């Protein structure tokens, strides 16, 4: 038996965990979700969700990985043989997500390059679906789009290259470069954005509290949903990463640091994005609060931001490059973490080397991801993303927390394990959050999603 790989330093682990958490969700998802769900008032349900679900679950996942020292299937299986499949379910979801996350990063690589000459022209939406994704040419439907295919291969070479080098020499080194670089680039973007004309209008629109909204269940579901996705919990990631911690590492403390770092980045992104939107509104004679002006997701990054860049008074290419390079760095560190879940699980289950597991598991993911680099790939991506986000993730989290908190040895065992290495002692807050609040919220979320699907 080989010695289990281990992080070189505590900071290495923290940067890797933050690298996983800080991703596209912080940059393009959080700002729009917060805006649509109460603006400034959203911070109340959001903080509540962070403290009653996000951080407690993160502590739970760190403890499971640290105690059982295995990939998600092996660690959950260590609590009870009957839980192993929950780990495999999470690994499968991560595998699917990795196939399309890579594609989005590939787009960002190309857009970083397009930034210099604003190659997207004036009709940025038309450029995205037309020239770039070639979606408007049904005659050729299904064939590979070279402008997506080439950067996609590049992304997989980088990610699998990092993973082959292992935990300390690969994942840790990559995050030690990517995350500080991301912090610097993103700060520059935010500073530039808030110093633009109109920035204040954008920030006003963002922070304007709509108190009526926080009475609605919908808003609370959105807050919990954002926290789960944003902290990468229920994806097998945090269990896998914490399985490489040294015996004496503080778990609870690390979970608080990861959680607050991710939320700080999210808040910073909200400020940057809305300052830029305020600027664009002023430049084009619109209002941020106009119906449909604020968008999230793919449209925000690849249609709205190019438009913002077109309006920049000074060095637009540099601003654009910084923005898309940030997406690439944030995305890569997340993609590395989701891919590591199946690399680790497969290598343990079949007793094969990391290199072989990367070749088979990573190779298969890369091959499948080529399907999204075709005409119509965006439609495929949207559909898969919808099902994964609405059912896969909530279900995986629900199964995990219910199994661990209600069955087998329950939370007591994990609590004493965490308390034996941490200087923060877990008590009733932790057990109530996981045993009651999180299962109720996830269960309610599931029902809501099914209801909205039917109607
Ligand atoms: N947590 C990441 C984000 O906020 C997204 C992510 C989800 C990454 C699942 C890996 C796995 O963008
Ligand atoms: Na995040």
Compose a concise summary of this entry.
With 455 residues, this protein is an all-alpha fold.
Structure description:
It is a multi-pass membrane protein. Its main location: membrane. By secondary structure, this protein is an all-alpha fold. It has a single domain (10-454), classed as Amino acid/polyamine transporter I (Up-down Bundle). Helices cover 76% and strands 0% of the residues. It contains 18 helices and no strands. The protein has helices spanning 10-21, 24-36, 43-68, 72-79, 84-115, 124-132, 146-164, 166-194, 199-207, 217-230, 237-242, 251-284, 297-311, 316-349, 354-369, 377-406, 410-421, 428-454. Helix 5 packs across helix 7 and helix 9 (199-207) crosses helix 12. The longest helix has 34 residues, at 251-284. The relative contact order is 0.20. The model has no long low-confidence stretch (mean pLDDT 95). It binds phenylalanine and sodium ion. Residues 20-21, 23-26, 97, 229-230, 232, 235, 237, 334, 337-338 line the site of phenylalanine.
Main sheet record: none
- Element-by-element helix/strand order: HHHHHHHHHHHHHHHHHH
* Cα gyration radius (Å): 21 Å
Number of strands: 0
Rough shape?
A: globular
Q: If you average the pLDDT, what whole number results?
A: 95
Strand content: under 5%
Count the domains: 1
Total helical segments: 18
Bound molecules: phenylalanine, sodium ion
Question: Within the CATH hierarchy, at the fold level, what is the topology?
Answer: Amino acid/polyamine transporter I
Structure characteristics:
single chain, mainly alpha, Amino acid/polyamine transporter I, 18 helices, binds phenylalanine, binds sodium ion
